Amino acid sequence: MPTSTTPGTGWGEWSNLEGQLFCAPVPRHQADGRLALVAVGPRAGIITREILRDGTWDGGWTRISDTSDALSRPATLRDDDGLGHVFFNTGGGTLYGVRQTAVNGGWSGQFATPATGVKGPPFAVRAANGGVHVFYRGTDGDAYVIRQLPDSGGGYSDPVGLGPSATFPSAALDGSGRLVVVLHHADGRLCVRQEVAPGTGDYGGHVTVGTAAETVEAFAVTDARGQVHVFYRSTGGELWGVAQDPAYRGWDEPRRLAGAIVARPTACLGQDGRLNVVVQGDDDSARIGVQTAPGSHDYGAWSGFGGSIGSPAPVVTIAAHQDGRLVAAHQAARTRNAWIREQTWT
Q1: What is the pLDDT of residues 54-102, one digit of tens each?
Q2: What mean pLDDT is predicted for residues 154-175?
């Protein structure tokens, strides 16, 4: 069993949430803080399952989209009004969305965004002004962003190009209030572009923050001090990380954090202000590493969650309950069910 580094907590056992998923489950949060998962489910629809107010997952999976041709992993966020949003790609290459119609409530019918020619999973993040920004890779090999227009009743801008990216973009909001988007170049360079001012949607030039990055998705996350950390797989198959400096303007040198991994890493803040990073090792096991201190660029020893996830490699995700306990989730390769492992109080 992995060792929990958060005082007063341990890790429970893996639990089967079923679902027959066609992608890794993606976490989202209700306005009251309850954790939920979203995925592509049976008949290529978007499904969700949430923790009930009694603390159980007994409500089962609910279909929230009209489509029957959803592709790849959806993106989720909660807006300033407390309403959840889910974005997903379809077989026709159009980016669609659904949004909650009431706080902690049901969902609207799906709507088409102006984004077409979409390839792979989108990534959604809220800007400093509360606006919703959705990033994606186009079939032409470039990355794009659309953003929610103010006073438009939920409408979105036309796509704005961000330049070439050999895989799907990721983004995070830094402590200066500016969005940072991560892009891969075909030559192995890992680059970032940062908003020139908070909430504008205008981005500065490409800054190389890493080299020898394999074209597997990177993951961007903000730590307790507001610095963006980017985790990625190197061409040697190892986990590397790079982080902003305290002024949110420059970047440290990239560091090797762990040995052989497969698929995309993900990360989440724990109760004690430290980032927890989960990966899948090349032996099909999930592993977790934790910052040595809030804001540090160093990580302690990595421990395994135990059990085989299976191949082909699904992504392992991590998120926090409303009480701060962490939850790791993945899709079983053979049965396609969702499995979770939760921190428990000791």
Answers
A1: 989 988 999 999 888 898 899 999 999 999 999 999 989 999 999 999 9
A2: 94
CB atoms within 10 A of CB 202: 10
Structure tokens at 114: 């102006």
Could you give all domains of the chain from N- to C-terminal order, each with its CATH number? 9-17+118-345 (2.120.10.10)
**Looking at per-residue confidence, does 139 or 335 come out higher?**
139
Cβ-count burial of 294 within 10 angstroms (0-12 exposed, 13-18 middle, 19+ buried)?
middle
Segment 278-299, tens digit of pLDDT:
988 887 778 899 999 999 989 9
Whole-model pTM?
0.94
Residue 323 to residue 118: CA distance in whole angstroms: 36
Alpha carbons 59 and 51: distance in angstroms, whole number: 8
